Amino acid sequence: MRAKQDELQRVEQIVDSYNCRRESLIAIMQDIQAEYKYLSAENLELVAKKLGIGVAKVYSVATFYENFSLEPKGKYIVKVCCGTACHVRKSQPIYDTLHEYLGLTGKRKTSDDGLFTLETVACLGACGLSPVLTVNDEVYPKMTPESAVELIESLRAKEGESHAEA
Hints:
Layout: H1 2-17, H2 25-36, H3 41-51, H4 55-64, E1 76-81, H5 84-88, H6 91-101, E2 116-121, E3 133-135, E4 138-140, H7 145-165
Parallel strand pairs: 1-2
Antiparallel strand pairs: 1-3, 3-4
C-alpha cells in the first residue's frame, strides 16, 4: 500500500514539474511510463485530475500512441524488428519462437514471471545486421530462433544469480 502512495506522490511531482499544463500531457505520460514502464489506471486518473481534463481524454491519448502501454511491462523489453530487411531474413520465426518459449498466448505480451515483454517494432534502423532484436534497447544482431532463446535463457540465469545473492 505504501509503495502505491509513493508512486502516486511521484506522479504528482511529475505533473507539477510541468506546471500542470494540459499541453504537456504527452510529455507527462512519457515521464511516468519511463519511470514505471506503463501507465496504470490510477496514474492516468491522477493526471486527468491534476490537469483538470477528463479521464476519457487522457485515455484517448494513451491509446492513440502505440508507444504507450496500459499493461505492466517486464524487466526486459524484447523488441523483434519486422522491417523489410529483417522480415526477408526471417525475423518472424524469431518472434514466433520467443512468443511460444515465453508462454504467451493471444494478445498477452508479458511472461508470467513478469521478466519479459515481447513486442515487434517496424524498424530498428540496423538493416545491415538483420535480423535484429533489442533487449532494453541493446542491439543483438544476426539472430536466429535458437540464439534468441539462448539470449532469454542467459537473462533468466542472470536473474536467478541475482536472486541467489540477495
